C-alpha cells in the first residue's frame, strides 16, 4: 500500500493510502486518522467509518470535525471508500448517483456484471482490517459507525459479525433497505430478484435473527436521526428498526434530533457523542 497524503491534525495525523484490493479487484483509496497516542506507538482501538451515497474517504475526514475528539480519546479512525471505482468497474447504467460508483451498499453482490467488484462487505469487514491493523498500534478492539448507506453498512457488518465489533453506532442509517427505494434498486441489481436473499443485508431482518444469541452478546447500538432529514420517511425508516429492536429485545438508543437534516452539519453536531460512546465501549475513555 502506498501513502498518497499526510497532514498533521490536532497533534495526530490524517493519512490517505492507495492499494490494489484482492476483494474488489481494483485500486482503492482509504483514509486513516491517527491520534497522538497512536502516533507515539501506544495501542489504540479502531473505529471504522462508512460514508453514504456519493461519498469517498474524504467527506467524513473533511466535514465531520471528528479529529479533535478522536485525538483526545485516543481513537484511530479508518474511512474506506463507498464502492469500487475505476474504468473497469461498471457503474449505474443510467448515470444515477444512488447505484454503482459511490453506492456499493457494503454488501457482496451475487449478480453479473456487479459481482466481480462489488464485494464491499468483505472488503470492509475482512480485507481492510487485515491489511492495516497489523501496521497500526492496534489494541485489538474495534467499533463501526456510518451515515445513511454507511449507517446501513455499519449495522449490517456488526449484526452479522457480533464478535468482531465491540461498539456500533449510526447517523440516519437506511434502516430497512428491503423496504425503501434506494435499497430495493440496489438489492435487485446486486443480489437479484429473490427477496429472501436480501434478508442477510437488512438490519431489521438481522436483528430478528440475532435473538438467537445470548442477550449479553449483543452490542448496544447508538443512532442519531435528524427530524428535518428529507430522506427520513421514504428511505431511512428508523421506526422499523425501533420496532425490530423492541420486538427482539435488542439494546438500541435512537435519538431523534429536532431540526437537523441529512448533511454533515448534523453529523458534526453529534459526532463527539458517538466518539465518546465508542471510546467507552472500546476501553479508551478518560
Ligand atoms: N447527491 C445527492 C445527495 C446525496 C447525499 O445526501 N449524500 C450524503 C450521504 S447519503 C452525503 O454524505 N453526501 C456528501 C456530503 O454531504 O459531503 C443529491 O444531490 O441529492
From TrEMBL:
Listed SUPFAM superfamilies: alpha/beta-Hydrolases
Active-site residues, Swiss-Prot/TrEMBL: 148 (charge relay system), 229 (charge relay system), 262 (charge relay system)
Entry keyword set: Hydrolase, Serine esterase
Record-linked InterPro entries: AB_hydrolase_fold, Esterase-like, S-formylglutathione_hydrol
GO CC terms, sorted: cytosol
Catalytic activity of the protein: S-formylglutathione + H2O = formate + glutathione + H(+)
Highest taxon, organism lineage: Bacteria
EC primary class: hydrolase
EC numbers for this chain: 3.1.2.12
Gene3D superfamilies in alphabetical order: alpha/beta hydrolase
Function statement: Serine hydrolase involved in the detoxification of formaldehyde.
Protein name: S-formylglutathione hydrolase
